[in-house]
Amino acid sequence: MPTIRLAVLVVFLLACSLAAAAGPGGAAVATAHPLATTAAVRILRAGGNAFDAAVAASAALAVVEPGSSGLGGGGFWLLYLADTQRTVMVDGRERAPLAAAGDMYLDKSGKPLPRASLDGALAAGIPGEPAALVHVAHKYGRLPLARSLAPAIRLAREGFPVSEEYVGKAKFRLQVLRRHRRAAAIYLDDGALPEPGWMLRQPRLAQTLETLGREGRAGFYAGPVAAEMVRAVRAAGGIWRLEDLRRYRVLEREPVVFGYRGYTVTAAAPPSAGGIGLATMLNILEGYDLETLDKATRVHLTVEAMRRAYRDRQRYLGDPDFVAIPRARLTSEAYAAKLRAGIELHQATPSAALSDAPAPVGADTTHFSIIDAKGNRVAATLSINYPFGAGVVAGKTGVLLNDEMDDFAKQPGLANVYGLVGGQANTIEPGKRPLSSMTPTFVEGHGRVAILGTPGGSRIITMVLLGILEFTEGEGPTAWVTRPRYHHQYLPDVIQHEPSALAGVRERLRAMGHALRDVGRRYGDMQAIMWDRASGRLEAASDPRGIGSARVVHLHATAKPGE
Ligand code: GLY
């Protein structure tokens, strides 16, 4: 009978949609610092959802990892809303000040002013993280903003013992920190490099976080906090005006979504170069049966895909509100097929042959991944750019300024601190967002969900690529975060690699025409979660290269003492 058949169909479709929408029951958190993981878990246990936990993790990381991200910086928060099965990218990237100019880091003869876009207040873009936290909490969270900020406020006020990692980053930026009185007073031990275990207390940052929690956006972008930041920035040689803060807006953007071998990949859209870069690389690689190839050929083909994606990054990518990006073409399979046709199976393509030429890399920036019991997810990558950003604390606010202006092309053809050569699309304009490599990513398919991302400057996108390849070949998050890494960014024309990454294939790669550079250490700090829908299993992993912690939590369990 048609009515019965229709009713059966409706029940079946309803069951399918409920199954798709059902969450994992438990939750998982992976961040780059155990105290930030604890903060997020505490908020989940207090009844918060993944978005509240993301606010708590972001704010805690701003306190305990001041060398990597903070209220004075920005980032991208990729959200999956389980109720509506919708994904949104919250763009809290910094903007160039309205008084910025294309030649602001060049001298009168057009030569770059050394380090002007890296050290000092002139290097700072207008922060987006505070606005993003307010936005995420108010629009998607369940708890009051002040509640989600509470763990970070406590950490800032009461202090915490610094890690060896903190000391390493402070050592790397010791000169610039010593140059600025307030930064030295906060981050150094009486002007000297602290020992691991030294207590870092940030009472003024605690106050600023409290004001943000109480007043929302106006607590940072207007009123006394804004006035003090502008005063301090200008006194230190910067060009911020109150209007810059007043006009800062968080934007919601459509993430880049594409298919790869039956999986759906969702990643950050411009002004991140990540989503488009991943699409180009994975679309190229989909044309090969990678798993059947020997290691040297596999690395070679992956490098050739990286080379082409980074060439396009330089050519086409920038702030989409300022430049027209051929997004549909760059992410299309037809375009990838054309690029693939130019790849030789056993011979490297010199980057010079792809036309248009230079590369150190940082371990700054931070990433975290969260899933809650309903299946809401967050992948967030946050930054103040180079370790300890501009090295300047904005007066009495306790806010450390970013140096994200270095991510712009100070001049087309000039490389930034990560060796990424800038193109016309990414030149400086007032109010423009600098192109970023931050690539928070979800991958879903074959009954499994992955949430991943990492810091690591220009190498972020290729680290996420290698993680996705592991996932789609059936590996779990421990493999994604642990695997040895290699990277090619078009220019310089060399495969940069961790010491063990190319073991056994170096000679073959050289014979194919590849130049190799062992970067002498391991890089990245990936934080990853996998949910296997069929078994219901949740797994989380934190990169062994860092000090982060990953936890799977059963929310009905009694909170541990101290949580
Ligand atoms: N500041 C690092 C990035 O956004 O790529």
**Category by helix and strand content:** alpha+beta
Strand order of the largest sheet: 6-3-2-10-9-1-18
Number of helices: 19
Distance between the termini: 58 Å
What's the SSE blueprint?
Layout lengths: L1 H20 L5 E5 L2 H12 L4 H15 L9 E8 L4 E7 L36 H12 L4 H14 L1 E2 L2 H9 L1 H6 L1 H7 L11 E2 L2 H13 L2 H4 L1 H13 L6 H5 L4 E3 L2 E5 L2 E5 L6 H12 L9 H22 L10 H4 L2 H9 L24 E6 L5 E7 L57 E5 L2 E5 L7 H13 L4 H6 L3 E2 L7 E3 L8 H6 L4 E3 L8 E6 L5 E5 L6 E5 L10
Parallel strand pairs: 14-15
Antiparallel strand pairs: 1-9, 1-18, 2-3, 2-10, 3-6, 4-5, 7-8, 8-11, 9-10, 11-12, 12-16, 13-14, 16-17
The protein binds glycine.
Task: Characterise this structure.
55% of the residues are buried. This protein is of the alpha+beta class. It has one domain (23-159, 201-563): Gamma-glutamyltranspeptidase, small (S) subunit (Glutamine Phosphoribosylpyrophosphate, subunit 1, domain 1, 4-Layer Sandwich). It has helices spanning 2-21, 34-45, 50-64, 129-140, 145-158, 164-172, 174-179, 181-187, 203-215, 218-221, 223-235, 242-246, 274-285, 295-316, 327-330, 333-341, 460-472, 477-482, 506-511; strands at residues 27-31, 74-81, 86-92, 160-161, 199-200, 251-253, 256-260, 263-267, 366-371, 377-383, 441-445, 448-452, 486-487, 495-497, 516-518, 527-532, 538-542, 549-553. Helix content is 36%, strand content 15%. The radius of gyration is 23 Å and the shape is globular. The protein has 19 helices and 18 strands. The structure holds glycine. The site of glycine (GLY) has 9 residues, from loops.
